[in-house]
Design goal:
single chain; 321 residues; alpha+beta; eight-stranded mixed β-sheet; 5 helices; globular
Length: 321
């Protein structure tokens, strides 16, 4: 294991969401081109974890160990929910439980990709032809989570194209809403070590979007440059004025009703990274020494979202699980 820690080795490994029926959820994400990379079962605690990601030969993380990847989705299934008619997921987009917004895949030919999803019988929150923004769509997974679909090419260029190659798809980003953009940007840049790749200001609509990530093997991005072909980005959505509202807060997904669970960063040295976080005065949900699981920690961001910290196997003597 590395004797020191360097944020240049950090990766935004995965986003965890809870699901009602794993068979239906895995089927949906398989249809989007993601492969089931690993399943972890914890029968004593009555839950399973499913890790999915893009693994075609051209994928950014192809062939790498689980914790050495970026842009994975972790599905958490608590036994019995699939047979409980009262069990429903909070997708993060309904008041008063807004917080987590969506995951996002980028595709080669967006019109063909959306048509393929529709042909399979899946529903949309927003089709390409809905509203003013004709360059993005939002599909709905079996639990009602939003999956944004963006193109890797200009939408005009792919008009009329009828084919789409799943091997070119990327798990591009995860979006969460933040109360105070300055506080969150400082946290993710100074504490978590991310770079700000792109800012989108929608002044007339009253919000800004900030896209952050780790340069890593994918390399640097010229600020404001195209990020559509990257994996493992974090999108922060800030609605103007929320930072001034006393008592305002977003739902972290872990209080009832539950849905989104956490994002996860893999690090070169779990112990040293946690020492660094401690030195920076972070708030903890779980320190390494807390509880039975001594191989994971959870940091809290300024809005109370959970950030899991795990060991990247590439820098370790043994696997995490």
């Amino acid at each position: 294991m590395a004797s020191t820690t360097d944020v240049k080795n950090f990766k935004l490994n995965h986003t965890m969401i809870r699901v009602k029926d794993p068979k239906e959820s895995v089927k949906f994400y398989n249809h989007l081109g993601l492969s089931l990379l690993k399943k972890l079962s914890f029968p004593d605690a009555k839950f399973d974890l499913y890790f999915l990601g893009y693994d075609a030969p051209g994928a950014v993380s192809h062939g790498k160990n689980l914790w050495d990847r970026e842009g994975l989705i972790e599905l958490t299934h608590n036994y019995g929910t699939e047979n409980d008619p009262e069990y429903k997921i909070n997708n993060g987009n309904v008041e008063p439980y807004r917080g987590f917004g969506h995951t996002c895949i980028s595709v080669d030919n967006i019109q063909a990709a959306c048509q393929r999803i529709e042909d399979a019988g899946y529903k949309f929150q927003k089709k390409l032809t809905d509203g003013k923004m004709r360059h993005i769509a939002f599909a709905l997974d079996p639990d009602g989570y939003w999956v944004e679909i963006i193109g890797q090419k200009p939408v005009e260029e792919t008009e009329g194209v009828r084919e789409t190659d799943l091997g070119t798809y990327r798990m591009n980003h995860t979006m969460i809403r933040v109360k105070d953009a300055e506080r969150s940007l400082e946290f993710y840049r100074e504490v978590m070590g991310m770079k700000l790749f792109r800012t989108h200001e929608a002044k007339e609509a009253g919000f800004n979007l900030y896209f952050l990530g780790y340069e890593g093997e994918q390399g640097a991005v010229v600020e404001g440059g195209d990020t559509a072909k990257r994996e493992g980005l974090l999108e922060l959505t800030w609605n103007y004025g929320t930072e001034k509202e006393e008592g305002f807060s977003y739902h972290d997904g872990n209080k009832g009703p539950q849905g989104f669970g956490h994002i996860c960063v893999s690090v070169d040295s779990l112990e040293k990274a946690c020492e660094r976080f401690e030195g920076l005065g972070v708030s903890w949900k779980k320190r390494l020494t807390d509880g039975r699981m001594k191989n994971v920690a959870f940091v809290l961001d300024p809005d109370g979202y959970w950030i899991e910290i795990v060991q990247n196997e590439r820098f370790a003597d043994k696997a995490n699980f």
